[in-house]
Amino acid sequence: MGKIAFVFPGQGSQTVGMGRDLYENYSCAKKIFDEADAALGFSITDMCFEGPEEELKKTFNTQPAILTVSIACYEVLKELGITPDIVAGHSLGEYSALVAAGSLAFGDAVRLVRKRGQFMQEAVPLGEGSMAAILGLDRQLIIDICKQVEVEHGPVQAVNFNCPGQVVIAGTADAVEKAAAALKNAGAKRAVMLPVSAPFHSTLMRPASVKLAAELDKVIVNDANIPVVANLTGKIITLGSAIKPSLVDQAANAVRWEDCVAEIVSYGAEVFVEVGPGKVLTGFTKKIAKEVLTLNVEGIDSLEKTLDYFKEVR
After folding, report:
1. What is the distance between the alpha carbons of residues 221 and 64, in angstroms, rounded to a whole number?
2. Can you give the residue range of the structural domain that contains 155?
3. Strand partners, 157
4. pLDDT tens digit string along 51-77?
5. Same domain, 208 and 266
6. What is the pLDDT of residues 106-147, one digit of tens each?
7. Which residues of the chain have pLDDT under 70?
8. How many structural domains are present in the chain?
9. CA 143 to chain centre
10. Which residues are known to be catalytic?
């Protein structure tokens, strides 16, 4: 069997009730939720299970909630003997990947992403920034058009290279609107405005990066036990001394997810398991690397399907 990759989701995959069945059935999952509550000083567990959805959607709640559910799923897999050869995560999910690789302690990670969410939200006042998904256009053309729009209308960049035919742009609300219109004129199939509270991964997030750097200086970042693929470069990273600045820069730079998946495939991974809520990354993987097998674990049902596969191949 080829190598196994675990990939961890980012913001937008949250749903009220996520993780509850694992919490109720696996003590290792419950332990992660309990540890998150203790680290944060409030019950992220209650927010994951009960909502309200409006609170869960706030970025400073979403980030620790998704991290907690993702690591609870990871711990269950590990207890059942399924471990990765290589890991990556989309944006926030990179923190989950680093916990899985032994680079970040879970308690430190959950506190970091809570603050990361706060810093990102504070960087741009509500309503002044936005994001849009551009469908069906070449990535280089999107980069070039955003640069042209930026000259006249202010900051806007391609910030998520998710998969062929899907690139997300972010910047000031006006610049994103102008860029979306220009991209549609250039042949984009659709430009979909995203319901987000800030222009994540754009240069407008630089103030968040500066604050995040100060928080990262307070925690230990170990060398990774297994390869981690960094959003910033789409390349493998393992040294703790390199991981810390990569996380700082990640907040205000593009997520090169398409490149990350290509790197994982070139490493020899033939099975991708999305570990955490939702199946967004599974969808991207199918478009980037049609030859790999995709599985996911977000609760008991998906866990059982994934376990069935590994029982068959082992």
Report:
1. 18
2. 129-196
3. 170
4. 999 999 999 999 999 999 999 999 999
5. yes
6. 999 999 999 999 999 999 998 899 999 999 999 999 999 999
7. 1
8. 2
9. 21
10. 91, 201
